Amino acid sequence: MAWFLALFFGVILLFAILARELFRLNKKAIKHGYGPNSQLPGHPKATGTLVCVNADAPTLGRSLSFPYAFQVTADDRHVTATYEYRAQRRMIADTVYNGELFLTFDGDKVKGRALMGGLQSVEGTVDESAARLRRGQPKESLLSFLNGPYEYGIRQGTVVFENTTRAGCIGRDSELEVYLDRIIGRVVHGPQKTWAVDVDVSYEDVAPERMALAVILACNDILSAHHGD
Questions:
Q1: Using CA atoms, how far apart are residues 167 and 148, in angstroms rounded to an integer?
Q2: DSSP state string for 124-178
Q3: What would the pLDDT profile of 6-27 be if each residue is shown by its tens digit?
Q4: Residue among 106, 133, 48 at smallest CA distance from 82
């Protein structure tokens, strides 16, 4: 009986520690430089839509569509973004799903965080041809052991999703094109292919690789939310 009580209270203590850690994650991430504190002010540098649709999800034959309004603000070192889906309910527009993104760049290095149903950190390098990142939780967190690789390449404007399922949920067969002022394509959940996001974003005065990273991370959040990852 004593060992059972010890185990029971041990589990309760563990959950209390994890709950406290999750509650403090955003403040801890800000303290250690994972993106700016809040959304940047100023005129948007990018606007567009990220439309989440059912690709092979069990929706009883219905075709579902969730158009997210995507907006980016940026300066020389930072990129912030919001993505929001509003549904009309009884003539009142309610926010049903929404997320935020905060990125800080230092040369080709990046640290940041995304908030949509929980915090996800990202850290690594990004340049014109590739992103080599770790995604999960801040290194300073007790949950950092959950981090994994998040990698993709950009070949002549086409994104090649090399390793975005271990620490994310974007499949290899996604198709995304990065132009100097626009990003378009379809990003598919992987490996289940349940949901897809149709991307159409126009931008200016932001490096294409930074915009591509913001779009990809936002799509990953949206796919994860709708699939229930």
A1: 5
A2: EEE-SSEEEEEEES-TTSTTGGG-EEEEEEEETTEEEEEE-SSSS-B-TT-EEEE
A3: 444 444 433 333 334 444 578 8
A4: 48
